[in-house]
Design brief:
By secondary structure, the chain is of the alpha/beta class. It is built from five helices and five strands, in the order αβαβααβββα. 47% of the residues lie in helices and 23% in strands. About 8% of the residues have low confidence. A five-stranded mixed sheet has the order 2-1-3-4-5, with helices on both faces. The longest helix is centred in the C-terminal third of the chain and has 23 residues. The relative contact order is 0.18.
Length: 171
C-alpha cells in the first residue's frame, strides 16, 4: 500500500513538473559601470529575488542571469532582446524569457541611488513577445534605510512578476 501511494505521489509530482513553464530571467541596469557597485548588485538581486519568488510560487521553474551575460552567450547573432530571448531560451531549455532593466537616475550623488523605473518584457523561446514592454515608475521614499529599500525592491519585483504571470495565463 505504501509503495503504491509513493509511486502515485511521485508520478503526480513528475507530471506537475513536466507541465510547468520554465522561465529564464535576465536583469540589467542602465548604468555604464564596468564593475557595478555593491549597492547596484544588491538592488538588482533584490528585484531578482522578488521576481523569482513570484514565479516559483506560481509553479514555474526559474533560472536567472545578468542580461550582459546572456548577450555575451548569445553572441553576434543577437541583434536585439528578442534575439537574445530566442537564443538563450533555446540553449537553456526555457519556455519563456523575461528581461528586466532597472533604471537609475542619470546623475546621482548619493551612495545609495534609488532606481526610478523598471522596464520589462516577456518573450517566448521563439523570440515572440508574449508580454509587451512595460515601464513601471518606481515611487520609493529615498529616506528609507538600506534594508528597507532592498525589501521595497523585492516587493516591487513580486508585483511585476505577478502581473506577468496573470498575463501568461491568458496566452
Amino acid at each position: 500500500m505504501k509503495k503504491t501511494v509513493f509511486i502515485l505521489f511521485f508520478t503526480v509530482v513528475c507530471l506537475a513538473a513536466a507541465a510547468a513553464d520554465t522561465v529564464l530571467f535576465c536583469i540589467s541596469d542602465n548604468t555604464d559601470q564596468e564593475e557595478p557597485t555593491a549597492w547596484t548588485v544588491s538592488v538588482l538581486r533584490a528585484f531578482e529575488d522578488g521576481v523569482m519568488d513570484a514565479f516559483f510560487d506560481a509553479g514555474h521553474i526559474v533560472t536567472n542571469s545578468f542580461l550582459n551575460e546572456c548577450r555575451d552567450i548569445a553572441g553576434k547573432d543577437a541583434e536585439n532582446e528578442a534575439d537574445v530571448a530566442q537564443i538563450m531560451g533555446s540553449r537553456m531549455g526555457a519556455d519563456r524569457v523575461m528581461i528586466m532593466e532597472i533604471i537609475f537616475p542619470e546623475a546621482f550623488s548619493d551612495d545609495l541611488p534609488v532606481p526610478v523605473k523598471a522596464r520589462y518584457t516577456m518573450y517566448s523561446n521563439t523570440g515572440k513577445t508574449v508580454f509587451q514592454e512595460t515601464e513601471t515608475v518606481l515611487e520609493i521614499a529615498e529616506e528609507k534605510g538600506e534594508e528597507e529599500l532592498l525589501d521595497s525592491f523585492t516587493e516591487i519585483g513580486i508585483e511585476i512578476a505577478s502581473k506577468m504571470i496573470s498575463g501568461l495565463q491568458v496566452f
